[in-house]
Amino acid sequence: MPTARFDIVAMTLSLMGLVAAWWVAAWFGDDPSILPSPIGVWRIFADEVAEGELQVHFAATLFRVAAAFTLAMGLGCVIGLVMGMNATVNRWFSAWLVVLLNVPALVVIVLCYLWIGLNEVAAITAVALNKTAMVAVAIREGVHALDPKLRNMAQVFRMRPLARLRHVVLPQLWPYIATSTRNGLAIIWKIVLVVEFLGRSNGIGFQIHLYFQLFETGYVLAYALSFVAFMLLLEFTLLRAMEARATRWRQSAA
């Protein structure tokens, strides 16, 4: 508990320092059209919330992030497990992962829009494809790092495949899953913004595109920081708790 309290205090002070630096930069710049002050952005945020505009676009972006994240994590975990446990599959298809990892996200987005159309299916598919390979690689490496002694123990006790997966494999893979979750959310929401910027009629990315054309820096910051704040909340609540749970068995073993 003292460590958790210290983390919260440190995080709060750190964020306050960041806001203070922003305030100083805005004061020295003295040009709200280029860099508005934090209070100026807060007023824009409050106005957009009062009008209900921000909630609509925030919900659209959140839906796309959640759908793409679920698809990417599900497919990536399955692919990573299969490739990690089967050397033949890994040998034949590892090159596919390398290709997917190195195709630029922008290219995938444009191709999905060209092939599928300017719709939600294309948007979510493009984002999920960009992240699936990263998850698969992380899980595959996690499988390769499994303790062989625990695997041998499971064989000695003749554990069923599902029981072995649940009690032997998954507990060791949780740190890799937790890392993929954190990185996945951070990357996916950024790619979603690009998807919305290029071809959707709502969402935070769409609003950023709109206000970019109008040279409204304050509105761009207000919409972008609204989702950043949400991601910070997730990081220091759900993701930290998930990471602590993922590594608890190692602490107990030590």
What's the arrangement of secondary structure elements?
Blueprint: H1 2-29, H2 38-51, H3 53-85, H4 87-102, H5 105-116, H6 120-144, H7 148-156, H8 161-199, H9 204-213, H10 217-253
Helix pairs in contact: 2-10, 3-4, 3-6, 3-8, 3-9, 4-6, 5-6, 5-8, 6-8, 8-9, 8-10, 9-10
How does this model look, in words?
The chain is mainly α and 254 residues long. The protein has a single domain, classed as MetI-like (MetI-like fold, Orthogonal Bundle), CATH 1.10.3720.10. The protein is 88% helix and 0% strand. The protein has helices spanning 2-29, 38-51, 53-85, 87-102, 105-116, 120-144, 148-156, 161-199, 204-213, 217-253. α3 (53-85) crosses α9. The two termini are 20 Å apart. The relative contact order is 0.12. The model has no long low-confidence stretch (mean pLDDT 85).
Describe this protein with a few key phrases.
mainly alpha; 254 residues; single chain
- The tally of strands reads 0
The oligomeric status of these chains comes to single chain
CATH architecture: Orthogonal Bundle
**Sheet having the most strands:** none
Could you please say which CATH topology applies here? MetI-like fold
- Please report the number of helical segments: 10
Number of domains: 1
For the record, what is the CATH homologous superfamily label? Answer: MetI-like
Question: What is the helix content?
Answer: over 70%
Class of secondary structure makeup: mainly alpha
Distance between the termini: 20 Å
User: Roughly how many Å is the radius of gyration?
Assistant: 22 Å
